[in-house]
Write a structure and sequence with these properties.
Blueprint: H1 3-10, H2 19-32, H3 34-58, H4 61-87, H5 95-119, H6 127-138, H7 144-165, H8 169-212, H9 222-239, E1 243-250, H10 253-260, H11 262-277, E2 286-291, E3 294-300, H12 307-319, E4 324-325, E5 331-332, E6 335-342, H13 350-366, E7 372-374
This protein binds guanosine-5'-triphosphate (GTP).
EC number: 2.7.7.65
Keywords: Membrane, Transmembrane, Transmembrane helix
Catalytic activity: 2 GTP = 3',3'-c-di-GMP + 2 diphosphate
């Protein structure tokens, strides 16, 4: 079972997948939120510049010198770092940490802004810190745990500051209660937001798998093979490199099904598919179930003289599975392989290569099965 399906079945109420899947999700999360993080950082910078101007216009100089310094020296630079991390590909792996740091710096600095004003006997509106908490939970595109951590640290600092500097007990009580309530609402909303992003990630990937892979063997399906072949063909044409296709068909598989039943037939197909899956080693290689008991391998830029040996590795590996097949000449399950190679030129199409591989497979069957036939490179292709 794929890890995505397992995660969907098991649930993820702690907002964590198993290690490999979690890494994939983090990459999806960072990539998917890149634009939103940038927008959030730009909006924050503009907002804090506005707060600086409001401070300068409305606060007495002995207060604004403190609040403006904190905003300019700490908060705005932390968002500039977020922006840089979002625009520079080399810094992108650190984007999540940059956003977390900015959230922490903004929260603590806002506490410092309120505290530094209180320290000189001046009450400035504390609602800004509520806005910061909700922003960190819902807009900053932080993972829920990080948002919660940044906000809890800020909340603690706020409570300490209130007890240390707030002289009005009623204001202190209201402010702490509102801060706790804002954190509760924000954390609750952010939890369900991340939960649904995780669900979208799993469902998207599963839909992609359903559309691209064969359900029984897990290899690519025929549609994916055709799309990939077109792509490799075009790439090979640009690079003046060859493309080869091996068509592989299980020998006497109808007799196998008739003797051992469909369930064992399926298990044998899966075992052969696993062997074939090991034949794609380069990034542009691909293995696919072409249909029924027929498979295909695309080899990008192979050495023509090695194709026979590459096919024989396959036939030998299937033989080595030692799957009993008493209705075949060999007594074991075997495959026949037809291989064709071509050097794509303008005007050729990849389908011609597929046809040539199919003809080679037919020949291998005709010559007695459990063998490899490599076609002479067709002159139009090579
Ligand atoms: N168990 C199982 N059998 C399948 C599946 N897909 C196709 N088959 C069977 O594969 C068999 C293919 O039979 P044929 O095309 O006559 O070929 P063959 O018996 O392998 O004979 P040769 O190819 O000439 O060696 C048929 O009996 C199909 O029912 C599948 O998903 N599972």
């Amino acid at each position: 079972m794929s890890p995505h399906r397992r995660a969907l079945e098991q649930g993820y109420r702690w907002l964590r997948f198993e290690d490999g899947l979690e890494r994939q999700f983090q990459a999806f999360f960072t990539q998917g939120h890149l634009v939103r993080v940038r927008v959030a950082a730009w909006v924050s910078i503009v907002l804090f510049i506005m707060f600086v101007l409001i401070d300068l216009a409305t606060l007495p100089a002995y207060v604004s010198i403190r609040t403006v310094s904190i905003r300019l020296a700490l908060i705005i630079p932390s968002f500039i770092i977020v922006l840089l991390a979002s625009y520079r590909a080399a810094w992108r792996p650190y984007l999540g940490s940059a956003v977390f740091t900015a959230a922490l710096v903004t929260g603590l600095s806002t506490v410092a802004v309120i505290g530094s004003a209180l320290d000189v006997g001046y009450q400035i509106p504390y609602e800004g810190i509520l806005l910061v908490a909700l922003f960190v939970y819902l807009i900053a595109c932080l993972a829920w745990r990080r948002a919660l951590l940044a906000n809890m640290v800020t909340l603690c600092a706020f409570v300490i500051m209130e007890f240390a500097l707030q002289t009005n007990p009623q204001a202190r009580l209201y402010q702490i209660v509102f801060m706790c309530a804002a954190n509760g609402v924000g954390a609750y909303g952010a939890y369900f937001l991340e939960h649904s992003i995780r669900t979208t990630f799993l469902v998207d990937t599963l839909l992609h798998e359903l559309a691209a892979l064969d359900g029984l063997t897990g290899l690519s399906n025929r549609r994916t093979l055709n799309i990939h072949l077109e792509r490799v063909w075009r790439q090979a044409m640009r690079d003046r490199q060859a493309v080869a296709i091996a068509m592989i068909d299980i020998d006497y598989f109808k007799r196998y099904n008739d003797r051992y039943g469909h369930a064992r037939g399926d298990a044998a197909l899966k075992a052969v598919a696993d062997v074939i899956a090991g034949q794609a080693r380069r990034p542009l290689d691909l293995t696919a179930r072409y249909g029924g008991e027929e498979f295909a391998v695309i080899w990008h830029n192979p050495v023509p003289g090695e194709l026979q040996a590459m096919g024989e590795v396959l036939t030998a590996a299937v033989e080595a599975l030692h799957i009993e097949h008493l209705d075949s000449d060999l007594g074991r399950l075997s495959v026949s392989v037809g291989v064709a190679i071509g050097l794509p030129c303008a005007g050729d199409d990849a389908a011609a290569l597929l046809r040539a591989a199919d003809e080679a497979l037919y020949q291998a069957k005709h010559q007695g099965r459990n063998q490899v036939v490599v076609t002479e490179p067709v002159s139009a292709l090579v």
